[in-house]
Prior knowledge:
The protein is α/β, with parallel strands linked by helices. Helix content is 56%, strand content 11%.
Amino acid sequence: MLERIQLLRNIGQFDSVNAGAQLPFANLTLIYAENGRGKTTLASILRSLGTGAADLVLERQRLGAANPPHVVLGIAGTTVQFHNGAWPAPMPEIAIFDDAFVAANVCSGVEIGAGHRQNLHELILGAQGVALNVALQGHVARIEEHNRALTQRSNAIPAAARGGMEVDDFCALPANPDIDAALAAAERNLAAGRSAEAIRQRSEFQPLSLPSFDVAEIDTLLARTLPDLEAEAAGRVRDHLRSLGRGGEAWVGDGMTRVGPASEGHDHEVCPFCAQDLDGSPVIQHYQAYFSEAYRNLRTAINDVGQGINTAHAGDVPAAFERAVRVAVENRTFWNAFTDVPEVNIDTAAILRAWTSARDGVLTVLRAKAAAPLDEMNLPQDVLAMVAAYHNVRATIGAVSDGLVACNAPIAIVKEQAAAASVPALTADLARLQAVQRRHSEPTNTQCADYLAEKAAKTATETQRRQARAALDNYRQNVFPAYEVAINTYLQRFNAGFRLAAVSPVNNRGGSSCNYNVVINNVAVALTADAGPAFRNTLSAGDRNTLALAFFFASLDQDPQLARKIVVIDDPMTSLDEHRSLTTVQEMRRLAARVRQVIVLSHSKPFLCQLWEGADTAARQAILIRRDAVGSTLAAWDVNQDCITEHDRRHALVAAYLDAADPATERRVAAALRHILEAFMRVAYPSAFPPGMLLGPFMGVCQQRVGQPNQLLNQADIDELRALLAYANRFHHDTNAAYETAAINDLELTHFSTRVLAFAKRG
C-alpha cells in the first residue's frame, strides 16, 4: 500500500514538497485539486512506478529546474525512490485509470486506432493471458528476425551462382558425388543435340589393320629343295650355273623351257641357242632333271610368295593405311566431343619404317631363294627381328583398332539420342548440373548452409508460434465472453444508454487486437466507418468516459491478484457524467472493499464528498493539492467542511444564534431566514415550487388550492408562512433596498428564528 508521499522535487508544479511525509494514506485516499494544480502529475508518477517507464516522470520535469525529478514514496513499510532517472523496480500491482488509460485502450478523442484495440486486447487478457500473448509476440518477433536474417543470407548468395534460380530451390539442390562425370556427359549430350545433322552424316570407326608376315610359311618355302634329284647331278648343275654368273640359273631355266619349241620339226631335241643335237650332252639330262616340273613349281611358289608380300605390303597399301589412320584421328576428334573415345597415338612414319624394313628383309631373302631355288635357306635373325618388331607394331595397331571399333556401340547411341534430342531440355539439364556444382562449391556451399540453418530455425520458431497461438486462442475462448458480460454489467450500473456486442479477439500481422460493436437502440454501430453511424459520431464524451471506466473495472474483475492491487483513479467524472456520479461512487465503494487500496484524484468536490460520506471512517484519508506561491504543495483536506451545504450552514448559523446570541452574527442570521424557508419549500414541493419561482407567487398557488384535492398548505400554514416571510423580507435585497441597514431587535430575531426553524421541521 502507498503509505505517504515523502518528497516531490523538480516535477510538474512541485518544486520541493515534503509536506506529504506528514500525510498518511489510507485504504481509501481522496485527493482534491483544482485543474492545473498537479493531480495528473501524481497519476503519472504512480503510472511510471507501476510500469517502470521513466519517461512518464522525466517528461514532467519542472520548467526552469536545474536538477532532474526526484520522488520518494513510502510503500509497504519501505522507501521507494525515483532517482537518477529510474525506479529501483516496477510495481505491476498498481492499476491506474486516467486520460492515458483512455487514450491507450479506448480512443484518442473520437478515433479508435489499431493501437487502442491491441492495448484493449491485453487489458482483457489479464496477466496470464498477457503472458501467453507476450510469448506469442516473442515468437512473432523472432520470426521477423529470422526473416531479416534470411534476407541477409539470401543476398549473400550471388545471383550469378544461382543462375536465375530462387534461393530456396538453389539451396535445395542435392549434392552429386559424380558431378564432374555428369557435367561432361551433359555437355556432350548438348553438343550432340546441337550437332545432330553432323552426327547423322559422320561415319563410325572402321577397323585399322596391318598385313602380317607368315614367317613359318616363308621358312618352309626357303627350306624346300628337289629331293629326287641326284646330289652329284645337282652339284654339277649348280657348279655350272655358278660358273655362268649372276642370273645364270634363271637364264638356263628359261632356256630349258625353249627346248621344246626349238625342237619342233626335228626328230631330236636341239639347243635353242645353237640348234645342235642335245642327245649326246650329259649335262642336258641333268638340266632336265634340275629344271623339272617340281623345280618350276618351287619357283612358282617363291614368286607367288614374293608377289603376295608385294601385294600385301607394298604399293598403295601403306598409303591406304596412312589414310585410314588419318580418318580415324579425325573421327576420334569429332566423336570425342560426344562420347569417350581413346586417344589415337599412331606414329605412321615409324610404322612405315618398321614395315618397310621387315618387308624388304623378307623380299631380299626370297629373291635369294628365287635365284637358287634348290638352295636350302631360312630367314636370318636380323630379318626375323625386323619382322618381330613389325608384328609388335601390328599388334599395337590392332589394339588401337579394337578400342576404336568398341566405341561404335556408344556412337550408335549418340546418333540415336542426337536424332531425338531437345536442345532446350538438354540446355536446362546442363544448367541444373552446373548449378549443382556451384551450389556445393565454396564459398557458396557455406552460404547455403547458413541460409538453410536460418530457415530451419525459422520453421522451428513457426511451430512454437502455432503452439503459442493455440494456447492463447484456447485461453481467449473463455476470457472474452466473460469480459463482454462484465463490461455490459458495468455499463448497466453506470446507467449507460448503450452496450457492447461481439467482443472478440482478432489476429493480425502486427499481433493480436480486440474488436467490438457498440449497440445503441438494439442497432450495432461499428467502431469505424467512412460514413453513417460509428463510434465517433454516436457516443458523447461522457459515454466514451463511461465506456473507458467500464473497461477498467471489468479488467480488474478478471485479475486473479485483485486483492493486492493499488487502484489509482484520476478524474473519473466529467461535467457530462453528473447523472452517473452516484453509480460511479457505488462501484468505487464496492471496489475499495476488494483491493488493497483505492486512490481517487478529482477536481470535483461534490463527487469526492459523496465517496467520503459513505466510506469507513477508520479507513479513509483526504488530501488537498493547493497553491503554494508559484507551485503546489500537499495539505490535509477537511472534507466534512466542504461536504456541508449552504442550507446546512444557514440552519447551523440560526441554531447557534438561538443557543448563544452573538451580535456579530445577527444580521447574517436575519438574512438566512428567507433562504431557509425557500430551501425547505423547494424540497418539500419541488413540482409546485421549481427553481426560479419566488415564495410570493408560490403562496398564491397555495392559497388557490386550499380545500382542493391538490392542496399544498392549509390555511394556518399559509398564514404562518406569510408572517414569517414578512419579517424575513426586511433583510433580503429583493424586497428591501435598505436591507443592510434595517434595524434588528434581538428578542424579535430570536422569536422569528425559532418559528422559522420550527416551520422547516414540518413533516
